[in-house]
Amino acid sequence: MSLVVDVRLTRGPLTLTVAFEAAAGEACAILGPNGAGKSTLLAIIAGLVRPDAGSVVLDGVALDRAGVALAGVGDAEPAAHVPARSRPIGVVFQDLLLFPHLSAVENAAFPLRARGVPADAARARALALLDRLGVAHRAAARPGALSGGEAQRVALARALIAQPRVLLLDEPLSALDRPARARIRALLGEVLTAFDGIVLLVTHDPQDARALADRVVVIEHGIVAHEGAVADVVRSPGDGFLGELLAKGDG
Predict the structure, then answer these.
(1) Mean pLDDT of successive 10-residue segments in the chain (251 residues)?
(2) What is the DSSP letter of 145?
(3) Contact 222, 16 (CB under 8 A)
(4) pTM
(5) CB atoms within 10 A of CB 24
(6) Which one in 59, 111, 138, 188 has a CA-CA gap of 20 to 30 Å to 180?
(7) pLDDT at residue 237, as a whole number
(8) Assign residue 249 a region: left if phi > 0, alpha if psi is -120 to 50, beta otherwise?
(9) DSSP 3-state percent helix, strand, coil across the chain (nearest 5)
(10) What does the CA dihedral 207, 181, 184, 212 come to, rounded to 10 degrees?
């Protein structure tokens, strides 16, 4: 399994030109300052935003192909776009986006229900996954009654329940307090170790990258500034965003 991303997008002041690859069983952390285009990149891969040029290819199948030659030369292939609901991709959004009128188990089961899985079967799978993530006792609670850590676990269950081939995590720890952050980071480590697909993790925190990722892609000003194994990139971060962050002791 492989994910090949080579896209260009302009939205307002942001011009995003990013190319990288990820393989099955690999977790890739995407780091960079605010406004660098990290969340926009995940939205493109998820199918929520279409690139202006380039492609997103999973296992040789184009999820997106803009129909425009990225280099501006040669013949472009026909345009393609697989809608988000049809992509084998699970997403944990930065704001979680749990449905406030649904219980935790109904939120977790929603992707299966949307695919036509009968309610009882979807609920049983959701309960089993919530139990695995340590939050089954909150299955009947609605999002407004959940703690930040509990809500994060429900969002993770929703992302995993349809057995995606790609898991996208957008700042999954940023809204949590320090104790909850440590607990969810440890839980994510266990989940990602067992996950045999591709993981892309957007974060500002090199500690998250060290704990959860195999590789790092650093995006600055809409382009890839650094890429490589976590230890190599952290050891030689350069003088850009990551170097400044590490110099401040935030990692």
Answers:
(1) 94 93 94 89 96 94 80 65 94 92 97 94 97 96 94 95 96 85 91 94 86 91 88 70 59 40
(2) G
(3) yes
(4) 0.89
(5) 14
(6) 111
(7) 64
(8) left
(9) 35, 25, 35
(10) -10
